[in-house]
Amino acid sequence: MDFKNNIDYRKATLEKLLKNIKIHENEIIDALYKDFKKPVFESVLTETNYVISELKTTINNLNKWSKPKKVLPSLLNFPSSDYIYSEPYGNVLIISPWNYPFQLALCPLISAVAAGNKVTLKPSELTPNTSFLIAKIIRETFDVKHVVAILGDAKIAENLLKNRWDFIFFTGSVKVGKIVAHAAANYLTPVVLELGGKNPCIIEKSANLKLSAKRIVWGKFLNAGQTCIAPDYLVVHKSIKQEFITLLKQEITNFYSENPELSTDFARIINKENWKRQIELLENQNIIFGGILNEIDLYLSPTLVDEPDLNSKLMQDEIFGPILPILSFQNEQELKTIIS
């Protein structure tokens, strides 16, 4: 089994993975629903179909990507023929998150396998049904000496980080990302950290307001706002603010009905800890839409907050939930003050 140098073997394992994902697709969708009521449409769009598309692209292009790349020689080497050869790193550790538990576990794994690496995957313990199914699919697809999934809590991840790896890929919070970076630094291990942050969305008065409102509502409340690239807050030109708020309310109703709690298209917060965190972010805020809670169901309705204090937790921390703060500006200087 030469997965390091044998391109055909890599392609064969990826094709087997593609086949097994298709076989288990309905189970994956069911597992995502059990973990946090992820809607079927969102599961297909952002999880299974996304991974299937990634696999097909990788399989179709792997031969081309693996070829040596001819480059121009320097004067120091003249006359020579120079090439860049891509080599696997070796043993790769992937620690994946809970918010897109299938996509964000499988996509880095696909790339690592395509590049000829051995992979150890630690999926999130916060989505146990999905993580269990991922481990099952990996066992059915790969030789245990090639790819393995290890289930468990944060302590397991902590112990894995004590080992020496050739590459680490982590997706998650800034807090845990710092721990991963520190562990990687002990061995000067290359690391990719896909972390969170504040993503402002600026609405100028020249914007197509109806289209902007529709796209923002889609991007923000997809996965109940638990998306690292979702709009974190809006900064709207003062002259159009009230009109835009009205359009946002209309689009939320269009997407999720008058009662999003009954909608089959709206997910839930992942666990009680994160639900309580969302409620804390709303303390002393001016809620102008939504704010409806159900702790038993871990539900928080799509919520609009008007002009929060820039020093509040809501504006200092990544929200990662269905809360959309709306601020206004009149000139470029005000805009810079808000987003800086």
Quick rundown:
The chain is α/β, with parallel strands linked by helices and 340 residues long. It is built from twelve helices and 14 strands. Helix content is 45%, strand content 16%.
What tags apply to this protein structure?
single chain; 340 residues; alpha/beta; Aldehyde Dehydrogenase, Chain A, domain 1; 2 domains; five-stranded parallel beta sheet; 12 helices; globular
Could you give the topology of this structure?
Elements: H1 7-23, H2 25-36, H3 40-66, E1 69-71, E2 82-84, E3 91-95, H4 103-114, E4 118-122, H5 128-141, E5 147-149, H6 154-160, E6 167-171, H7 174-185, E7 191-194, E8 200-203, H8 209-221, E9 233-237, H9 241-256, H10 272-281, E10 287-289, E11 293-294, E12 299-300, E13 303-306, H11 313-316, E14 323-329, H12 332-339
Parallel strand pairs: 3-4, 3-6, 4-5, 6-7, 8-9, 9-14, 13-14
Antiparallel strand pairs: 1-2, 10-13, 11-12
Helix pairs in contact: 1-3, 1-5, 2-3, 2-5, 3-4, 8-9
